[in-house]
Design a protein that fits this description.
The complex is a heterodimer of chains A (about 150) and B (about 600).
Chain A (H helix, E strand, L loop, with lengths): L5 E3 L13 H8 L4 H12 L19 E7 L2 E7 L1 H12 L10 H16 L9 H17 L3
Antiparallel strand pairs in A: 1-2, 2-3
Helix pairs in contact in A: 2-3
Chain B lengths: L1 H6 L5 H11 L6 H8 L3 H10 L2 E4 L7 H7 L5 E5 L19 H9 L6 E5 L5 H11 L5 E5 L2 E4 H10 L5 E3 L4 E3 L4 H9 L5 E3 L10 H10 L5 E3 L9 H6 L5 E4 L20 E4 L19 E3 L7 H8 L7 E5 L3 H11 L5 E5 L16 H10 L5 E6 L4 H10 L5 E6 L12 H10 L5 E5 L7 H9 L6 E5 L5 H8 L7 E5 L5 H10 L5 E5 L18 E6 L2 E5 L3 E5 L2 E6 L13 E2 L9
Parallel strand pairs in B: 1-2, 2-3, 3-4, 4-6, 5-7, 6-8, 8-9, 9-10, 10-11, 11-12, 12-13, 13-14, 14-15, 15-16, 16-17, 17-18, 18-19, 19-20
Antiparallel strand pairs in B: 20-24, 21-24, 21-25, 22-23
Classes of the chains: A alpha+beta (about 150), B alpha/beta (about 600).
């Protein structure tokens, strides 16, 4: 039986917009895939911009504090910002935290921004649809012709 | 002297009206007409009454009613819907771009319309039915270009009613196929067809006998591009199509058959034989010397094949192929194909086994081309390596270049010569006729200074794609101080902030359209509002997870789309799109 304790020691900033009981948190966190959680946290640790960039617009880097995750007998401690912690928790929770309707779409925007900041240099070169189609078909022809 | 010029009457206003009305029909260039319409109200009215063709680069820029009110006698309309990124699977399918309201207006108002071209739009069978019923008798050209949403039933309406159709173009459209009846109807009813194109569609139930019938009946059939259809089945078609100049499509399925026995029309000079491999290539040799255009994008040739084939094509003006052509193939081009005007080199498969290992293009090939093919007007190329010197060479020799697009592939970790600041500057400085420019590199590929160089040296460029350029907002701001003619800007993978993007937009005085994917967002998207102004729509597609294949999900970062519109914010946006105009910010 795996017990999970999410212990973010920065109490002042409210991450959820409605209260969550500790039991609730335990419940949904126990359903998380630990590898996925690790991935999300690891991606949060990447610098906002790769080493080549020297942003002149100074981003106010939020202070990082420890986020401790106990899962399946393993304890991991990560230095994360409140926003990154929010990402992990939202991700684990599996759905949007409910807010007032007029802010709903903005909420989506915000979430988007977090992902964008980390991954704006991670965009793979997109393939043209027509060529993608052809390359797939060509592979199909090769496979048909294969003896086994 | 000055005094007399005020009292002298140059011409009476009615005389100049008559003169102007005689002259205006000869002015066809849309930018000239635009200038003319700004002179005075009378000229605006005459220009509007005599305008024959309008192209609306984004269908949400104006309403159908606004178009018909100003240009009631249009004979030709071209509308574009989804952003260009849709061709790269980056835009949600339900993003928008429906033609229905336009077709309704066409049915209501445009009584002289002969040419309809929809590009990257959603077309339904009902739209086609309405078009066929109301304008079918006049319609000469119908182009459903990378469209979706219709089936072969819709085509059936068109082919039954539009007997004056000389062009039916469906290239790359996603058509729901029910049967091949539409082609049968077209063959039965039409005798004036010149261009038939259903290339890169999945229409497979067409009967090649209908093609043959069409070729026999339409003596002016000049260009035919079809989907996959066995070449051996087309023998009759080729015999009947005596005027044929252009053919693309088909496929070679039978390994054992003698494809050399197929004879092609004597005027055929633009060719694209799909799935043609080394074995079948010699069938082209007898007429290679008269080839003006060659499409090898969907052929199965290796580098050596390219070298052999291209050395036999001294009259080649247009070549499209994948980077399997290799530097060696580029050198052959430079040596033998002196008349080359357009060169497009697409990206082949990433898997090593699927493409020739020689199949990469680098500064070697580019330098050779720049020296050997000095008539080049258009070049689009995916390179694996690049140097400043190669770009400098292009700037020095390719004085006729009006469209330059370069993408640096991400396979190689180390590139010979980065950043490309000086090369890019030399290229832009040397190619004064450039109107379109795309540069897609990687972090470190171009510094902020290089990006500023682009801005400083792009007097005539109207469209640009910037991919992974610059280092910081400073680069973008330097860029935005130049580019006086830039109308449409696409930005991908650059780490510019919302604030910088918004300020850049305000600096770029000709800008009417912006698309961005990958940027440093503010906490709430509000920084973009720096560019808020009348008639300027701002839309965001927030980041989303997209299903690829059966079980794999890919993260798509957020997009910004901003454009001038006379129609106000659009009302048909799907859930995946957020209009910034509608976000309440006053109650913060």
């Amino acid at each position: 039986m795996s017990g999970i304790e999410l212990n973010h020691s920065r109490p002042t900033k409210k991450i959820f917009h409605r209260p969550q009981s500790f039991r609730d948190i335990q419940g949904w966190i126990s359903k998380m895939n630990p590898e996925l959680v690790k991935t999300v946290i690891e991606s949060g640790k990447k610098p906002l911009c790769p080493a080549h960039y020297t942003p002149t617009v100074s981003l106010s880097m939020p202070e990082t504090t420890p986020l401790t995750i106990f899962y399946n007998g393993i304890v991991n401690v990560y230095q994360v910002s409140p926003r990154q912690a929010e990402t992990v928790i939202k991700f684990a929770y599996g759905k949007e935290t409910p807010t007032s309707p007029s802010h709903n779409k903005l909420q989506t925007l915000n979430q988007g921004k977090q992902d964008v900041d980390e991954s704006c240099s991670d965009l793979p070169i997109a393939r043209k649809r027509s060529l993608q189609r052809f390359l797939k078909k060509r592979k199909g022809r090769v496979n048909i012709g294969a003896p086994y | 002297m000055i005094h007399s010029s005020y009292t002298q009457r140059w011409t009476s206003s009615s005389m100049s009206d008559v003169v102007f009305e005689c002259v205006i029909p000869y002015i066809n260039n849309s930018r000239d007409r635009q200038s003319v319409s700004l002179v005075c109200r009378r000229w605006y009215e005459v220009e509007a009454q005599t305008r024959k063709h309008v192209m609306i680069a984004l269908c949400y820029a104006a309403t159908p009613a606004q178009l018909s009110r100003r240009f009631p006698y249009l004979e030709s309309i071209k509308l574009k819907g989804k952003p260009r990124a849709a061709m790269y699977n980056l835009i949600p399918e339900d993003w928008g771009g429906s033609v229905t309201s336009w077709v309704e207006e066409i049915a209501r108002s445009f009584t002289c319309l002969k040419v309809v071209h929809f590009r990257r739009m959603i077309v339904t069978d009902e739209d086609l039915q309405v078009l066929a019923r109301v304008r079918g008798h006049l319609l000469q050209v119908l182009k459903l270009d990378k469209c979706s949403g219709f089936s072969t039933d819709g085509l059936l309406h068109i082919c039954r009613s539009c007997r004056n159709l000389n062009t039916l173009f469906l290239e790359e459209s996603q058509v729901r196929e029910k049967d091949g009846e539409w082609l049968h109807e077209l063959a039965l009813n039409n005798t004036v067809l010149e261009t038939l194109n259903f290339y890169m569609t999945d229409l497979s139930q067409v009967d090649f006998k209908d093609l043959e019938l069409l070729a026999r009946k339409c003596k002016t059939l000049v260009s035919v591009k079809i989907s996959d259809c066995e070449i051996l089945d087309l023998v009759g078609f080729f015999q009947a199509a005596v005027s044929l100049e252009e053919f693309s499509g088909g496929c070679f399925n039978d390994q054992g058959e003698d494809y050399g026995a197929v004879s092609y029309p004597s005027s055929l000079c633009r060719l694209g034989l799909n799935y043609m491999s080394t074995n079948e290539m010699p069938i082209v040799f007898p007429f290679a010397s008269r080839l003006k255009k060659l499409d090898l994008l969907y052929a199965l040739l290796d580098t050596e094949d390219h070298c052999l084939l291209l050395s036999k094509c001294p009259n080649l003006e247009v070549l499209e192929t994948r980077n399997v052509i290799g530097d060696r193939g580029m050198e052959v081009l430079a040596q033998y194909c002196k008349k080359l005007k357009r060169l497009r080199i697409e990206r082949g498969d990433d898997e090593q086994e699927m493409e020739d290992e020689e199949g990469i293009v680098s500064q070697i090939g580019l330098t050779a081309i720049s020296q050997g093919c000095q008539d080049l007007q258009y070049i689009a190329v995916y390179v694996s390596d690049i140097t400043n010197a190669a770009l400098e060479s292009m700037g020095m020799h390719l004085k006729n270049l009006n469209d330059f697009r370069l993408v640096l592939l991400d396979r190689e970790e180390v590139i010979t010569d980065l950043p490309l600041d000086n090369g890019v500057r030399a290229l832009l400085h040397g190619c004064q006729k450039l109107k379109r420019f795309a540069l897609y590199l990687r972090p470190g590929g171009l510094t902020d200074l290089g990006l500023t160089y682009i801005g400083q040296n792009s007097q005539n460029i109207r469209w640009m794609l910037l991919g992974y350029l610059g280092e910081s907002d400073e680069g973008l701001l330097g860029f935005s101080k130049g580019c006086p003619s830039l109308q449409k800007l696409e930005v991908r993978g650059c780490c510019f902030s919302e604030q910088a993007l918004a300020i850049a937009v305000l600096h770029l005085r000709s800008l009417r359209y912006l698309w961005v994917q990958g940027y440093r967002g503010s906490s709430n998207g509000y920084d973009l509002l720096t560019m808020a102004r009348p008639f300027w729509n701002i839309e965001i597609i927030p980041s989303r997870r997209v299903l690829v294949g059966e079980d794999k999900e890919v993260e798509h970062p957020a997009h910004i789309l901003a454009y001038y519109s006379l129609a106000g914010p659009r009302t048909d946006f799907p859930p995946s799109v957020v209009l910034l105009n509608s976000v309440p910010f006053l109650d913060e």
